[in-house]
Amino acid sequence: MPWEGYNFEDAVLISERLVYEDIYTSFHIRKYEIQINQGPERVTNEIPHLEVHLLRNLDKNGIVMLGSWVETGDILVGKLTPQMVKESSYAPEDRLLRTILGMWVYTSKETCLKLPIGGRGRVIDVRWVQSSRFHIIYLLCSLVHYST
Fold it and tell me: Annotated Gene Ontology MF terms (predicted)?
């Protein structure tokens, strides 16, 4: 029996107060994964050219802290991937270093794991799983979605 058009087929009618006061909410657990190759790639909390508020939840190793509240765009894992600089784009001092010392100059590209658009929640688990060829960091975040 419909009540002012609110219930439909198998729907359940609840009080609006439960929704507005966040009593009737649901949560979903989502897993975010990033792969870090052994060697040149590194996990760090020192990511150049990123705003400080995006890095606020990272620990000293560059991994999000357990229990942190994260919002859209926040960094979950700070990762830098080195890239070889083309010979023509070397600054004169870089060419001199390469000529004298045989040193190669690298730049780093920011390849962080970020929380996607629409995501927010509390970090409930952080796991570092290591294999013989590469490292994988597993992050489980509980994201709160309101049932309105």
Answer: DNA binding; DNA-directed RNA polymerase activity; ribonucleoside binding
Rounded CA separation 126/120 (Å): 16
Specify the CATH number of the domain 25-81+111-146.
2.40.50.150
**Helix (H) or strand (E) segment spanning residue 135:** strand 134-146
Q: Are 140 and 125 in contact (CB under 8 A)?
A: yes
Collapsing DSSP to helix, strand or coil, 89 comes out as: helix
Percent helix / strand / coil, the chain, rounded to 5? 15, 40, 45
- For residue 134, CA distances in Å to 37, 58, 65, 101 come to 5, 22, 22, 31
Tens digits of pLDDT across the chain (148 residues): 455 555 555 566 567 787 677 776 666 778 888 888 767 788 889 888 888 888 999 999 888 998 888 888 999 999 888 876 665 556 777 777 777 776 665 678 889 999 888 878 888 888 877 766 656 655 555 555 443 3
- Other beta carbons within 10 Å of 5: 6
